[in-house]
Structures are given as structure tokens and as C-alpha cells.
């Protein structure tokens, strides 16, 4: 690999020791020097390849600190209902897919949001039966935490009037007690009866998902799927071996699989991450309950591992913080970097508590855009300033990392940056506008913040000598643009370990 000199750049390094520079030298896939062009070029050989960045904003490539790669890949193979604005539109999309499906084949659809439907409700089994009566149908909510099954799928799942809800789950029922088809928090039940995608289909979906991530400047992800264990590790290994996984992956370990995963794969692209604990929130009830959550967190903490707790509502966030605090009180440990994933509603005083305990927040700013109208409709007005309270967290000194939670929101980081800085919902309504941050700060959450959350700062997340030369070039005026003009923006150029991506290969 030839030496590379990136000159005439506006370098946003994400390195406090040297926040800005004009040039970057790259040798053997790593950053060799950062500074002024004359000083930087001295670190290279006699004839480096020189690229004029034309004043563009050069910064580290992005890291998605919380997503679900296999689920995202699978949605690319589903019927896409993200743009549906009525149940009739969903029915038509399902009907067309059912016509093409083989006998007995499941019809999978994804992405509906009931608050965007003119009908003002979730679809039900009768809606799906009308267009696919003989095939099992699963329609997945945009959040990923709810599904609607038709009657054929309910029969396969053995869900009927007499069925009891599993812990953390709920079966919606009509006035007669019959299941309506809407299942909340029951993904594990459905996935136990719906056949998995064939490996060849899944690999094709992963290739497509990774191409979109790379085109958006994401070269590393942290997969937060709570079921991750040995089987998923082996699958990621196989995907890499077959050339379907061109990005680096930090695989969180589900708490039920604690201790199963090795620290790193032999080829180095896959490494073990935090231990994931899901808090299921149904009304005021949280599962697991406080005692069990405290036990689980202590188990992870005593093992010397990092915990990542899924907590959205105020009660869940308080429970997560309480369990971590109990573990730290009994077994003090510096540098733990325990994480709360989402932190959708921030109770009063919680930001200061999180900062005192050294708890990180891994958030998804795009929720403000994608689901903002839902929040404005359902969250009491007096609580809306607590929604994804980025400014409050920052002022308290909490470290923030950003992510997409794909497939829940689109995986492009600049759409997330636009949401964090602009705080506008799809309709244009403002969502707790006082909690907005600058474009530069939101970019730092996708780089240095995400690296810190995954213990990756020795490898990536900043433009600093010795780190991987994973870099993106954005327009020169990116930091000065109005947030909403960033939503559809993609990097002009992307480098992975010093090699520039061919846009055609990621289109």
C-alpha cells in the first residue's frame, strides 16, 4: 500500500490534544502524522499519493454504537412498510408479496408505525387475513418490539384465548378475549416458530446492509442484539469468511450467554463487547424486576465485564442506574464504562447521578425525527423536556455515544446528527428544542464517543497518529449548515485502513 497524503483539509480530529489540522499522512493503513502539510509530508516517503481535499471536513469514520446487523439485513429482504400511511397500503404490499410466495412460506413485512396511519390504530389479524388468509404473516412494528400476526401465524405460535403472556410480553385482545394479532415484547416467541432465513439469503442481506453502512461512512458497528451467544458469533465468523462482512463488529454478549464468547476472533475483525440486559417495559411494570436486575448487573460487574442495559422510560432508567450503583457500592471499580442504552426519558437529577457513577449513555438521536410525532402525541407536555435530554446530559458531564439502532431508524449518521442538532419530528414539530446540541458535538458522539463506549479508542474514533486510517470527507461547510440540510447528506469520500472505497461498490 502506497503512502497517502491528505492535504488542504479542514481536519476535525476528535483529539483534544490537537483538535484541528490541515493535513493527514497515512502509511500502511494507519495514521502516520497529523498537522500542517509540510510537517506531515515529512513522515512519508519521497513520493506519497497526494489527495487535495479542497477544504473539505475530514474526520474519523463513524462507529455505530448500538445496532442490530442481522435484523437490519433481514428487513432489507422484507416487505417495506415504512412509507405506509394507511392499513390499506400495508394490505396491498402484503397481498403482492403473498401472491409471489410459495405454499407455506412466511410473509415478512417491516416498518409500520401506527401513529402515522390514517386509521389511527395498529393493524390486526383480520386486516392481514383479508389479503393473505392461507400463509403465515408477520408484520413487524418500526420499533422492532411489537409484531402483528395473522390467524395462520397465530395458530403456528399456538397463541389463542387461553394463552398466557410471557414475562415482559403482552398479547393484545379484542372484547371477546381473542388475540387481535398484536404481540408486544414477544419477539423471542415468534422467532421460535418462524423459520430463519436461509444462510444464502441472510448473507445477501448482510452484504447489502454493509454496503449502505460503508457508503454512509460507518466502518465499525457494535451489535446490541440481546440473544447474541456462540451461535451468533459463529455466524458472524462465517459471514466474514465468505466475504459478506466488510466492516468491523463488536458483538455484545446476551446476559443469558455470559462467558460464552472469546475476546476476539482469529482474523481480528470480530471482538466481544458489553453484556446486554433487556429491560422490558409494559406500563409501570419492568421485567426483570429490581432484585433480579441487581443480581444480573452484579454478576456481570464482578466478572470484570461492561454491562449495557436497555432502558427507555424513566422508571427503567432509574432501575438501571440503581442496579449499577448497587454493584459499584459493593464492588468499587474504576473505568467500568457501564452503559444505559437509549435513556429516552431522563428523570430529574438523573444526569448528575449518571455522571457521578461514570455511567455512559448510548442514544439514538434519529428517534427524535422518526418517532418525534409519536412522542409529541403520547408523552405528557410537562415531561417532554426530559425526552432524549442531550444538553442536560452534556452539562452534567455524562459521556454520550450515538447510534442508529438499525433497523429501528435509518443507519446514516448524518441523519442522526441532523436530529440531535435540529430536534424536529417528521411533521416539522419541535421535540424539546432546548435540548439541542451543535453539529460538531453530535459528530463527536459518532466517533470519539462511540469508540469510548466500546473500549475502541486505542484503535479508532479520532484522527491521531497510530490509529486506523478510517476516514470520511464531508463538505467544507458541514459544521455551519442548518441541521435539516444534513439529513440526506452522505460523505464525499470514505477511506478504510487507508484504502478509498469505490462508490460504485457501495451503491
Can you tell me about this structure?
This protein folds into 3 domains: 4-55, Urease, subunit C, domain 1, CATH 2.30.40; 63-68 and 197-496, Metal-dependent hydrolases (TIM Barrel); 78-191, Diaminopimelate Epimerase, Chain A, domain 1. It is globular and about 80 Å long. It has an 8-stranded parallel sheet. A 6-stranded mixed sheet has the order 3-2-7-24-25-26, with no helix packed on it. β11 and β12 form a beta hairpin. It is an alpha/beta fold and 507 residues long. The protein has 16 helices and 26 strands. The longest helix is centred in the middle third of the chain and has 17 residues, at 199-215.
Q: Please tell me the overall pLDDT.
A: 95
Radius of gyration: 23 Å
Structural class: alpha/beta
Q: What is the CATH architecture annotation of the largest domain? A: Alpha-Beta Barrel
Beta strand %: 15-25%
Please provide the count of β strands. Answer: 26
Oligomer: single chain
CATH topology of the largest domain: TIM Barrel
Q: What gap, in angstroms, lies between the N and C termini?
A: 25 Å
Largest β sheet strand count, sense and barrel closure: 8 strands, parallel
The top level CATH class name of the largest domain: Alpha Beta
CATH H level, superfamily name of the largest domain: Metal-dependent hydrolases
Number of domains: 3
Number of helices: 16
Helical fraction:
25-40%
For the largest sheet, list the strands in their spatial order.
Answer: 8-15-16-17-20-21-22-23
Gross geometry? globular
Which blocks of ≥5 consecutive residues have pLDDT under 50? none
Amino acid at each position: 500500500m502506497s503512502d497517502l497524503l491528505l492535504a488542504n483539509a479542514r481536519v476535525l480530529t476528535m483529539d483534544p490534544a490537537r483538535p484541528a489540522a490541515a493535513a493527514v499522512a497515512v502509511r500502511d493503513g494507519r495514521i502516520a502524522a497529523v498537522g500542517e502539510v509540510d510537517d506531515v509530508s515529512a513522515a512519508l516517503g519521497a513520493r506519497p499519493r497526494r489527495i487535495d481535499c479542497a477544504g473539505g471536513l475530514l474526520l474519523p469514520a463513524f462507529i455505530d454504537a448500538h445496532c442490530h446487523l442481522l435484523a437490519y439485513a433481514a428487513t432489507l429482504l422484507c416487505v417495506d412498510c415504512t412509507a405506509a400511511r394507511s392499513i390499506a397500503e400495508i394490505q396491498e404490499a402484503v397481498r403482492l408479496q403473498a401472491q409471489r410466495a410459495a405454499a407455506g412460506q412466511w410473509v415478512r413485512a417491516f416498518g409500520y408505525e401506527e401513529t402515522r396511519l390514517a386509521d389511527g390504530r395498529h393493524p390486526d389479524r383480520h386486516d392481514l387475513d383479508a389479503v393473505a388468509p392461507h400463509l403465515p404473516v408477520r408484520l413487524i412494528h418500526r420499533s422492532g418490539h411489537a409484531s402483528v400476526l395473522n390467524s395462520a401465524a397465530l395458530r403456528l405460535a399456538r397463541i389463542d384465548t387461553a394463552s398466557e403472556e410471557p414475562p415482559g410480553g403482552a398479547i393484545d385482545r379484542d372484547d371477546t378475549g381473542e388475540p387481535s394479532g398484536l404481540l408486544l415484547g414477544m419477539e423471542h416467541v415468534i422467532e421460535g416458530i418462524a423459520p430463519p432465513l436461509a444462510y444464502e439469503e441472510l448473507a445477501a442481506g448482510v452484504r447489502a446492509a454493509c454496503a449502505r453502512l460503508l457508503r454512509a461512512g460507518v466502518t465499525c458497528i457494535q451489535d446490541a442484539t440481546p440473544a447474541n451467544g456462540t451461535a451468533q458469533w459463529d455466524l458472524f465468523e462465517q459471514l466474514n469468511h465468505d466475504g459478506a462482512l466488510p466492516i468491523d463488529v463488536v458483538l455484545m454478549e446476551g446476559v443469558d450467554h455470559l462467558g460464552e464468547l472469546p475476546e476476539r476472533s482469529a482474523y481480528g475483525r470480530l471482538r466481544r463487547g458489553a453484556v446486554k440486559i433487556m429491560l422490558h417495559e409494559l406500563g409501570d411494570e419492568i421485567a426483570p424486576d429490581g432484585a433480579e436486575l441487581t443480581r444480573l448487573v452484579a454478576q456481570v460487574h464482578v466478572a470484570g465485564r461492561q454491562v449495557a442495559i436497555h432502558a427507555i422510560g424513566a422508571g427503567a432508567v432509574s432501575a438501571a442506574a440503581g442496579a449499577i450503583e448497587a454493584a459499584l457500592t459493593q464492588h468499587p471499580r474504576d473505568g467500568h464504562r457501564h452503559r444505559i442504552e437509549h435513556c429516552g426519558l431522563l428523570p430529574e437529577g438523573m444526569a448528575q447521578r449518571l455522571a457521578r457513577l461514570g455511567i455512559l449513555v448510548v442514544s439514538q438521536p434519529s428517534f427524535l425525527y422518526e418517532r418525534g410525532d409519536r412522542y409529541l402525541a403520547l408523552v405528557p407536555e410537562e415531561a417532554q423536556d426530559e425526552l432524549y435530554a442531550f444538553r442536560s446530559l452534556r452539562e452534567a458531564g455524562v459521556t454520550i455515544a450515538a447510534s442508529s439502532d438499525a433497523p429501528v431508524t435509518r443507519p446514516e449518521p448524518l441523519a442522526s446528527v441532523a436530529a440531535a442538532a435540529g430536534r424536529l419530528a417528521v411533521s416539522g414539530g419541535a421535540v424539546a428544542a432546548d435540548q439541542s446540541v451543535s453539529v460538531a458535538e453530535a459528530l463527536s458522539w459518532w466517533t470519539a464517543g462511540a469508540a469510548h463506549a466500546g473500549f475502541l479508542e486505542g484503535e479508532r474514533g479520532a484522527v491521531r497518529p497510530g490509529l486506523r486510517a478510517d476516514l470520511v470527507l464531508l463538505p467544507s461547510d458541514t459544521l455551519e449548515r442548518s441541521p435539516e440540510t444534513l439529513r440526506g447528506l452522505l460523505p464525499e469520500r470514505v477511506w478504510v485502513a487507508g484504502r478509498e472505497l469505490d462508490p460504485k461498490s457501495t451503491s
